[in-house]
C-alpha cells in the first residue's frame, strides 16, 4: 500500500507542469530570467542597467532620470510599482559609489515612496540592496536599490506556496502612472 502511494508521488514529479496534490502553478517563462540573469552580466556591454538609459523612458520602463542615478520599474516585480534606483555608472557595490551618488540614491528612494503612496496607496514598503550573487542580487554587476510597495495580505499563498505572483496591471500602465505622478510632484 505504502509502495503504491510512494510511486504515485514519484510519478507526479516526473510529469513537470501537470497539477499534483500540491497544486503547483508552473511558471516556465521565468527560466529565461533565471538562466540569463546573473552569469550573463559581466560588463557594461551586457548590462541591462547600463543599456536602459540609452533607450526611451517607455522602452526601458524608466520613470525618472536624475543627475547621477535613475529610477526604473523592475522587469520582474514582486508587486505592482516595484522600482529600482540605479546609478548610471556600472559599479557593483554600495561602497563603490560617490557621496553625490549616495545622496541622490537616497533622495530618489524617498521620492519613489512618496510617488507610490500617491499612485497606489501601499500600506508599507520593503527597501533593500542585495550585494553580490551570494547576497541575492539578480544582476550583481550593477548596484540597484529595490523599493517594493506592500499591502496588507499581499503575501498570500500564491507567491509563498505557488511561487507565482498575480500582477493586475501591465508594466507600461504602471510606468505611465508613476512617471505622471513623479512629474506632477516635481514640475520643471
Automatic annotation (TrEMBL):
Residues of the active site: 144 (tele-amp-histidine intermediate)
HIT domain location: 49-157
InterPro entries: AP-4-A_phosphorylase, FHIT, HIT-like, HIT-like_sf
GO-annotated molecular function: catalytic activity; nucleotide binding
Residues forming coiled coils: none
Binding locations of substrate: 74, 146
Cited PROSITE patterns: HIT_2 (PS51084)
Motif (Histidine triad motif): 142-146
Pfam families, A to Z: HIT (PF01230)
Protein name per Swiss-Prot or TrEMBL: HIT domain-containing protein
Amino acid at each position: 500500500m505504502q509502495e503504491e502511494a510512494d510511486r504515485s508521488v514519484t510519478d507526479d514529479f516526473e510529469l513537470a507542469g501537470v497539477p499534483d496534490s500540491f497544486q503547483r502553478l508552473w511558471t516556465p517563462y521565468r527560466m529565461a530570467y533565471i538562466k540569463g540573469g546573473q552569469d550573463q552580466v559581466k560588463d557594461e556591454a551586457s548590462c541591462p542597467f547600463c543599456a536602459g538609459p540609452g533607450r526611451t523612458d517607455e522602452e526601458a520602463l524608466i520613470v525618472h532620470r536624475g543627475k547621477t542615478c535613475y529610477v526604473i520599474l523592475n522587469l520582474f516585480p514582486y508587486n505592482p510599482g516595484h522600482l529600482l534606483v540605479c546609478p548610471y555608472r556600472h559599479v557593483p557595490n554600495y561602497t563603490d559609489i560617490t557621496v553625490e551618488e549616495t545622496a541622490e540614491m537616497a533622495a530618489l528612494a524617498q521620492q519613489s515612496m512618496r510617488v507610490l503612496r500617491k499612485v497606489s496607496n501601499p500600506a508599507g514598503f520593503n527597501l533593500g540592496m542585495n550585494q553580490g550573487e551570494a547576497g541575492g542580487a539578480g544582476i550583481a554587476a550593477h548596484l540597484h536599490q529595490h523599493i517594493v510597495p506592500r499591502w496588507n495580505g499581499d503575501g498570500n499563498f500564491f507567491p509563498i506556496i505557488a511561487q507565482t505572483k498575480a500582477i493586475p496591471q501591465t508594466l507600461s500602465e504602471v510606468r505611465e502612472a508613476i512617471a505622471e505622478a513623479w512629474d506632477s510632484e516635481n514640475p520643471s
